[in-house]
Amino acid sequence: MSLRSARRRDLRLVPIALATWLTSAILIVHAAAAPVVAALLWGTALGLLAVAVLARRRQGLLRLVVIGAVCAAVAAAAASTVAVAAGPRAQVAEWQISGGRALEAEAVVVGKIERTATGWRFDARLRSLATGPVVHVSTVPVMIRVTEVAAGLDLGAVVSVEGTAWPADAGERAVLVLDAAGAPRILEPPGGALAAASALRHGLLATTEGLPLPAGGLIAGLAVGDTSAVTAELDGAMKTASLSHLTAVSGANCALVVGIAFAVAALCGARRGVRVVVGLIALGGFVVLVSPEPSVVRAAVMAAVAMLGVLLGRTGAGVSLLSTAVAAILVVDPWQAGALGFALSAAATGALLLGAGPLADGLARWMPAPLALALSVPLAAQLACGPLLVLLTPQVPVYGVLANLLAAPAAPLGTVLGLLACLCAGIPLLGSGLAAIAWLPAAWIAGTADLLAHAPGATVTWLEGWPGLLALAVVGASMAGMIVRTTGRVRVLSTWVAATGLGVFLALGPVAGAWTRMQVPERWAIVACDVGQGDAVLVRSAGVVALIDTGPDPGSVNECLDLIGVSRIDLLILTHFDLDHRGGVDAVIGRVGTVVHGPPGDPEHQSVLDALAAGGARLQRATIGLHGALGGAQWRVLWPQRGTLPGNDASVVVDIHGGGVPDSLFLGDLSGAAQRTVAANAALRPHYTVVKVAHHGSADQDPALYAGLTPAVALISVGENTYGHPRAETLAFLNDDRARIVRTDQGGTAAVWMQEGGLRLWHAEQIVSGGSGVGAGG
């Protein structure tokens, strides 16, 4: 059999996976149609089987009909899964729970507890939900967000939370999003294997706690995917350097475990069948250890598929198994079709099976074969996954392949040593000794991430959304065509497409960026930076600049500072220490004069202040009455009171006026109750031209405060989020107040200034020559 026909045979299951994926992706958004679609697909499958019986003597037609029948049947199975779940999900949608109603929910934790910019979140399976005397019972999946975590909160625990809820977006696995008012109560701790796994993970964290940061906090991330000890700075650096997959439980972790188990069994003389069984048992134990949530199970299945393809020595067999695994996962869990992580896993595995070999052969024309082979794996993954990652952040990591090449020797060492330290954490000296050794490869990875993340041109701005995905996919495909051994015509065409893509990028990227910088108004007084879901607002008077909060990460605030042309921050106001307000502080360390800050809540918060002080900043704790000058303007702190506990309601509220700055009030993340306290105790002005709306436009506001302030402009610093920010009720009362609502998620970075007796507004994504006028009442 020829190689070409073998490849056709090995790819024959790909249409089945694609049909199942497409069906699932459509139906999870339009679940009401699932029963009808499932019935039609089952009917189609049966009809095609009947045609197959009639056409059994015509081999070519028979093959096509059988594949079509299997495509229809597997897609029908996925549609049936959605249809079965549609009933309970629709019932929950009818519950009267929205509008900020207080409720109490009981649920079982089924997902990892992950840190977010404002607290923690985890997936759970609902047991019951009570609103007053009405108790609803259901087992639908939910997402729970908390601002505090309780001891014992882990996978398998039964918890009770009090707070509010609203329906999740269409296509999400979770039916409801629950916002807890405080820490969840643990009704039942995890039991059995989940309890043992939790104890091992916590033992590893305790063992590595005394090791130097940031590498010490990375060990648990490499070994078991626990990133709770990874510093925000290292997390950002690893994302920029395209190394964040090392701190998640990916197919590489699972494949490593399977490979080690397989090798140990082989050394013991076990037969191939026994070795496979041993590898699968080890993989199952690893999944339980790191937490058997959907993303981990998905990674385990993909790893098993990739390992089987490699062990069998047939990449084609691996593609068939990959297609089978994708289809099977989607039949069981159709909501994976809308998960970017699922697409990344499938793309990375497919690139390993199909792309790494041809790329290695092509690269071997210009370099030694071992180096070509080492480069081919991260390059294949980058070309396959890069277009998908653009959907998250419109940036391309320039040194991603180099970073992965440098980290490649250390990653398996860190993972294996970390796993051994985890399993031996309870053994004196042995566990701590293994953790200390694991610190060395972790330090290498952390150093690589930090070095390359801060290297010149570490990232290149790319087109956003689907246009960016398609553009990068075309450029990546053309680059692959230039490398692999192909005909001269293909290489010429690939070179032409790559050059054209680069030209378009230069036109739409750096050139467009330079044009946008040229359009920034010279007389700006206030700039709300587009930093995603977070706050970063610049205020300037007479050339002196203040920055209120730094957004969730250094990259986004750096982009804004570069766009506006700000290099020195004379006054930095950290309203509070949620990550979406202080996560980008690394971008300004060493160029800040004075820091005015709210009360720090834990040692990590204090370390932020210590880093700023080490960079030459002078620290001042904010309390009511603190004031100062900003060029020709004056600023004063209206909140918090001395002794206010750390958190959103301890946000620094600052009033700035004069010196060309419109009278402005910045409310941090204050809740409605705290806003009422400020209104009753602070010396507010009767009118503010600009008000920075609290907490990204959340529903927890005091409409009376805004009505009394009569702002001409209401700034809402907000990005893509799952909180529903800005909430409809907040937008409604701001519109009733006739305020001009300025949202960074709709127009990008926005500038406000006074000119010729009027207020002017500029948006980076909606450039208006000379600014647009804003009336006194909006």
Overview of the structural elements:
This protein is an alpha+beta fold. Among the domains are: 3-93; 103-190, Beta Barrel (OB fold (Dihydrolipoamide Acetyltransferase, E2P)); 514-774, 4-Layer Sandwich (Metallo-beta-lactamase, Chain A), CATH 3.60.15. It contains 26 helices and 26 strands. The strands form four sheets. The protein has a nine-stranded mixed sheet with strand order 16-15-14-13-12-11-24-25-26, with helices on one face. The chain has a seven-stranded mixed sheet with strand order 17-18-19-20-21-22-23. A hairpin with a 2-residue loop joins strand 12 (537-541) and strand 13. Helix 3 packs antiparallel against helix 4 (59-93) and helix 12 (340-363) runs antiparallel to helix 13 (369-389). The longest helix has 35 residues, at 59-93. The protein is globular and about 85 Å long. The N and C termini lie far apart (75 Å).
Task: Describe the structure using short key phrases.
7-stranded mixed beta sheet; Metallo-beta-lactamase, Chain A; 9-stranded mixed beta sheet; 778 residues; alpha+beta; OB fold (Dihydrolipoamide Acetyltransferase, E2P)
Low-pLDDT residue spans: 1-9, 767-773
What spatial order of strands do you see in the largest sheet?
16-15-14-13-12-11-24-25-26
User: In DSSP terms, counting alpha (H) and pi (I) runs of 4 or more, how many helices?
Assistant: 26
Major β-sheet, in short? Answer: 9 strands, mixed
**What general form does the structure show?**
globular
CATH topology of the domain at 514-774: Metallo-beta-lactamase, Chain A
Strand content: 15-25%
